[in-house]
Amino acid sequence: MKRLSSPIRAILLLLLCAFAAPLRAHAHVGSKDVYEQVDAGPYKLFVTIRTPIVIPGVASVEARSNGATVKSIRITPLPITGEASKHPPTSDPMTNSSADPAFFTGSIWMMASGSWQVRFEIAGDAGTQTVSVPVPAVALSTLKMQHGLGITLGILGLFLIVSMAGIVAAAVRDARLEPGAIPSPNRRRRAILATAGSLVVMALLIWGGAAWWNVEAASYALDVYHPMALTPALSGNTLDLNVQSYDGGKERSFRSNKDFLPDHGHLMHLYAIREPEMDAVFHLHPVLASAGDFRIALPAMPAGTYKLYGDIVHANGFPETLVSTITVPADMPGGPLGPDDAKGSPQPLSQGQLGNSYKLPDGYMMVWDRPSTISANTAYAFRFHLLDANGKPATDVEPYMGMAGHAAFVKTDGAVFAHTHPEGSAAMAALMLANGSSENDASDRRGTMNTVAMNMDMGTHSAPLSSTVEFPYGFPSSGRYRIFIQMKHSATIETGAFDVVVP
Length: 503
Hints:
alpha+beta, Immunoglobulin-like, 4 domains, five-stranded antiparallel sheet, elongated, disordered N terminus, transmembrane helix, signal
């Protein structure tokens, strides 16, 4: 069947998905929006990009500025890599609030799935600057029409069919009669036949329309995001994680298991969280043993079932979180933690809610400046402090994998997982691609990432970092969450834990 490419087709596809129910998202499980703090010279922006669940779709963009005064911002959506990244469309202006001149809002169309960026052109007292925020754009759902709407449309359709049949019958029976004349039996029979014929024609039209609709719906379903499969195999304490390429039948939906970029020095960041109590958490870093096969010697772990969340980044900057589970037996031998690995042992969920301070094993403490109110789908900069054994701000804080800290926001039912950093929710590899040269080939980009990874491992910060760290994030739905915060001091990687119930 020939596929349509007219604007009508695009409109119908949008209507097809207007009542869709969102699935688990790509880069962060169950959390599709992007939160990022970016620096563009003297300008600083706190950016929130609310991506659509259907593609094509409209993404809403919010930006709050500080630092040098910003007078205007223009935004442009374009792919991170490929030929299209060299030919950006016309930018759109953001509107700043009359009540808050530092707050800007705008919207952009995301016309295709893939690894995108939103380019910000900032003008203000300190001149003009440009910075980009990576955005993974994928369709997350298909049509689930509301029951009430379906009944309403069915009734209206039946009314139109009956009305059309009545018009045809009246035209055949009465159109040529003189005023006041009575139709003959022959005209009545012809009217009945015409009515039956019109119903047959309309039935064929409806059948053809339904067939076309099903073809379009099936074609669109091929574009709906499906995560790559992650298959774990545990032998002794050696964990193999087999990542399978995804082929959805379309070139643009294909994702390879041979094109990973290092992010913060590692090709995969693996969180293992014991279920159902979330009383053991490990942040691990498997290495690539062969194409698509990650391997790690697990440290000593309490026995039980662990939910696995594996973060990877593809060569085009597209991030994914792969999900699976393993069961650790009680007699599993355990090795030491790797240099960048971390673990934590918070109290079980069933023992109550963790507070705003968390005592660490070596006497240090982590404290959360919890906002007075927290609501879903609201952007926050969550602030945490590391205090030493005397309750003073720690003066020996070091970079942990090139960052002041790492955070994982996890819903207790497993429906949400987001591994974030002080800059925000975007992967560092994607940020580098979005703000670097789009003309380098994949091998050059891998070389650049590996160089950065080596620099981070060597610890390029000579002076201690601040004992305070912030993480931009917004909870995507109501429910109970456990937050894991990791910071490093004097070669010790600490893991703090905090609970929050989002109304």
